[in-house]
Design a protein that fits this description.
Blueprint: H1 2-27, H2 39-50, H3 57-78, E1 85-90, E2 100-103, E3 106-111, E4 114-120, E5 135-141, E6 144-147, H4 154-161, E7 168-174, E8 180-186, E9 188-191, E10 195-197, E11 205-210, H5 223-235, E12 245-249, H6 273-277, E13 287-291, E14 297-299, E15 310-315, H7 322-332, E16 338-340, E17 348-358, E18 361-374, E19 387-389, H8 416-426, H9 443-455, H10 465-480, H11 486-497
Parallel strand pairs: 11-12, 12-15, 15-16, 16-19
Antiparallel strand pairs: 1-18, 2-9, 3-4, 4-5, 5-6, 5-7, 7-8, 10-11, 13-14, 13-18, 17-18
């Protein structure tokens, strides 16, 4: 295998030499560019002066972006750093609020200037009308179709997508089977709170879920303020009295702004969540951050005394960065127990540098700035947090089923596995009664699919587009229901039995 690779490399080098050698001495300047900071401009100028083909602004723009990406990626990979990256932020979009936005209610990726739907917000106007893996290929303007492929750029598509509250628009949507349909959407305000509370129906237990940590901006009051408002209300109701417990859910929280955790001593800013929950102890910081300079920055609590109620913290393998900081300090400095599964283990933190604004896109360097520590100089990358294990079961343990084709008996489909897992949870199938989940459409899978279809007043024993849409709606309902959250229900029972 090695010899084969060497042979290929040798052949490539011969071809490369052949292609490059003829004109090398005749065209290239004898004195190379010495200033590396101007190398890109020098290369482009060489192309414009000597290159046989015309080079337009679009090509230069794409090359510049790839150059930035390559430089950042190369340095990050050399240091084994998966967190340093180039971030592109569209400036043409309306300023976003971390707690809500006005729109269709989807997340998407561009695909050949079309819009591939990845997620549909269950409370948004697109719910039940658009589905993951649908492709938005255009819109209608006064009844006339406008296809995105005919627009000048992705930015032009974004401009078409922008809408105001209660504005009605018609989308041309193609399903995974290639069928086109018109979808009428009225733009609504969609809530995407970074922190929210839900009523568990328990007299002594309150619940707050923090999905991410956002700082204060022109359009957002920040997670610290949202959390404080919720906590104040709960402390006057459910958490008022003795033998009370707050469940703080940090599952699937990827982290976010440091100022949401701690205001860094800025009197003009609201205390962060760690300051709102933990007592001040000047002899022992909640956590420390150490950048490249080696200057240690300590962060302390803000309360004069601990809270009167207990706090239980839910985490999982997707709890990372700032979520791990909060979990760590609640555990080591507050003595509050963690439940769920071991966290991600991200012991470093990032900062940002604005690079350039090009064609309505702001390019930002997100770079690793330093490490953070909890307890007695511990780092989660080497010393994981102590978490009481709760197994991942139920609907939350299943990846969202994504439909791409009709599936039938005696065939293997990579995407079938999540549908089989869904049916196992939906029908409570366990042990020898459970469906296989390897993507093979066997007889038992066929029977359960036919049962599901019959219950939904559908015909046939295949997973059709209609079957998949019903499954999606049932899946999304279960994901938003606390009663279907097995891990949370286990923790509630542990609290009640203590």
């Amino acid at each position: 295998m090695v010899n084969k690779k060497l042979g290929i490399l040798f052949l490539f080098s011969v071809i490369l030499a052949f292609l490059a050698g003829f004109f090398a001495q005749r065209i290239l300047p004898s004195t190379p560019q010495q200033n590396s900071s101007g190398m890109f401009d020098y290369i482009i100028q060489s192309f414009e002066n000597y290159y046989y083909y015309d080079v337009d602004d679009e090509e230069i723009h794409a090359a510049f972006i790839k150059t930035m990406e390559a430089a950042i990626k190369s340095i990050a990979e050399t240091n084994g750093d998966p967190y340093t990256r180039l971030l592109a932020i569209p400036l043409s979009a309306s300023p976003s609020d971390d707690e809500k936005f006005v729109g269709v209610g989807i997340s998407f990726l561009f695909e050949d200037q079309h819009i591939r739907i990845g997620y549909v917000y269950p409370q948004g106007p697109a719910h039940g009308l658009m589905f993951p893996n649908d492709l938005i290929i255009g819109m209608k303007d006064e009844g006339n179709p406008i296809y995105f492929k005919d627009l000048s750029s992705e930015d032009a598509v974004i401009q078409r997508l922008k809408g105001t509250l209660n504005e009605e628009k018609i989308f041309i949507v193609k399903d995974p089977l290639g069928n086109e349909r018109d979808v009428v959407i009225t733009y609504q305000e969609i809530l995407t709170p970074t922190a929210y509370q839900k009523d568990l129906g328990e007299e002594h237990i309150a619940y707050i879920h923090i999905t991410s940590f956002a700082g204060v901006s022109e359009t957002s009051i920040g997670t610290a303020a949202v959390f404080q408002n919720i906590l104040n209300q709960l402390e006057q109701t459910v958490l008022n009295g003795t033998n009370k417990t707050l469940i703080l859910d940090l599952r699937d929280n990827p982290g976010g702004a440091l100022t949401a955790l701690h205001n860094q001593g800025q009197a003009s800013m609201l205390p962060g969540i760690t300051q709102q929950l933990l007592a001040r102890n000047l002899e022992r910081p909640l956590f420390t951050m150490i950048p490249k300079s080696g200057t240690v920055q300590n962060f302390y609590g803000n309360l004069s005394q601990p809270k009167s109620y207990d706090i239980k913290v839910l985490v999982n393998e997707h709890s990372a960065s700032a979520a791990e900081v909060l979990a760590a300090v609640l555990n080591t400095e507050g003595g509050y127990e963690l439940y769920g599964r071991p966290t991600y283990g991200k012991g470093v933190y990032q900062n940002q540098v604005r690079l350039s604004d090009i064609r309505n896109v702001r390019y930002v360097l997100v770079y690793t700035e330093g490490e953070w520590y909890y307890g007695d100089g511990l780092n989660v990358a080497t010393t994981p947090l102590d978490v009481h294990f709760i197994a991942a079961t139920g609907m939350r343990n299943i990846d969202m089923p994504i439909f791409s084709r009709v599936m039938s008996k005696d065939h293997v489909y990579s995407e079938l596995s999540s549908y089989q897992q869904f049916l196992n949870v939906y029908y409570g199938l366990t042990g020898i009664n459970a469906l296989r989940t390897d993507g093979y459409y066997d007889e038992l899978t066929r029977q359960k699919v036919m049962q599901y279809n019959t219950e939904k007043e559908l015909t046939g024993d295949v997973i059709s587009l209609e079957t998949a849409r019903h499954i999606h709606l049932d899946y999304m309902y279960a994901m938003s229901s606390l009663t279907h959250d097995d891990e949370l229900q286990v923790l509630i029972q542990l609290i009640k039995s203590a």
